[in-house]
Fold this protein.
Amino acid sequence: MGYKSEIQNKNLAWFLPRPRPPFTYKGVMPLWGEEWLLELAGDLLGKQDYDLLSLFCGLCKQGFRIDINPDVKPDLVADAHNFVDLLPAGMMFDVILADPPYSDEEAKQLYGTGKLNYKKWTSECIRVLRPNGLLIVYHKLMMPNPDPKKFIVVKRVFLGIRTWHLPRVAIYFQRRDAEFIHEQGDAITSNPKWKEN
């Protein structure tokens, strides 16, 4: 194993500039961050036309946008821990981009909410993510696989923004749970992207 190994080929590093002023909203993505992350998602899926959910959307512009803060004008004002039952019946997504607060302190400071429950909000995502779909978790920490029985890691993108600033990481988890593998048959299991982490 070396830096050219299959495991290391899952990793990318980008350096993106800070967003241009005037941005007073704390936690906005770097310039081109949303666009590049979503273009990469399309490359991984083999299509650029897909149904997108932007969870904890903040100032993200694309897809169906959900946030608990009405000031960012989301399509749906909702808590990420309990949003699925508020969606129109049967609404499903190929890609979910989640940009949660990076700590319970930030959740309280930005939104006045209590502690984040990673397992709970990612479980909500699973309910509306299509087979073979991507859950992209954008964070300052290497977040764990929310459910190794249902997801594999297919890509990690490390984003540098500026000196003396923590990098961010976007982890692409691809859905592969057993009931969907059974339904899709060889089309999924023969795909080389389904290899384990």
Observations:
- The beta strands are 11-15, 52-55, 64-67, 76-77, 93-98, 129-139, 151-160, 168-175.
- The mean pLDDT is 86.
